[in-house]
Amino acid sequence: MKKIIKRIFVVILSVIFVCSFSTYAYASEKVQPTISFCATLKIVSCPNASNSSKASSGILGHSFLIVENIGVSTFKIGHMTVPVGESITIGTYSNRKNHNGIWYNIEGYTGMNGTCYSLTTGLTGSQVATLRDTINAHDSWSLTKNCSYFAKTVWNSVNTGCKLSGSNPRALADSIKKVNGYSTKVTIPKKV
């Protein structure tokens, strides 16, 4: 009888011992939330670009967006399909014959001279949907709703955590420069 009680006691202690280690191991693991980004959004402002949409209005510079698909499936931004691994530029112009408003991939053809300032953020699927809706709602250009207005409005719509301001490329560039992590190394995707 004493042997049975001893064995039961040893088994109970063993179970307690094993459970205490597994509880400790479980408690020490910190669960980190994961965010799945399917795109990156870059806002770019080039305050001294002379080949801008405002050449006719006497204002120098140009501001625009770059969207890159880093997800696993194709999606649509505005009226453009963006395949996996590819990027597009989106900006508004007033000096195009066919349309005053949004144009895609113009910046890659014309290039941007001078220093450009940019910020980049990751976008989730729901933020890409917001981005698309905001772009589609702002297909126009005026002196007050110009390329800088368009770029900052779209950027601010996707809740990046940093609101930008500026009613022209210089003011938007100044706003970008106030944010930690801005860059002056901007690669503009070119389409062939």
Description:
By secondary structure, the chain is an alpha+beta fold. The chain folds into 2 domains: 32 residues; 139 residues, no CATH class. The protein is 33% helix and 21% strand. A 5-stranded antiparallel beta sheet has the order 6-5-2-1-7. The protein has a two-stranded antiparallel sheet with strand order 3-4. The relative contact order is 0.20. About 8% of the residues have low confidence.
Topology:
Layout: H1 2-28, E1 39-46, E2 62-69, E3 75-77, E4 80-82, E5 87-93, E6 101-104, H2 106-110, E7 117-123, H3 125-136, H4 147-157, H5 169-177
Antiparallel strand pairs: 1-2, 1-7, 2-5, 3-4, 5-6
Helix pairs in contact: 3-4
Task: Write a concise synopsis of the structure shown.
This protein has 192 residues and is of the alpha+beta class. It has helices at 2-28, 106-110, 125-136, 147-157, 169-177, and strands spanning 39-46, 62-69, 75-77, 80-82, 87-93, 101-104, 117-123. Strands 6-5-2-1-7 form a five-stranded antiparallel sheet.
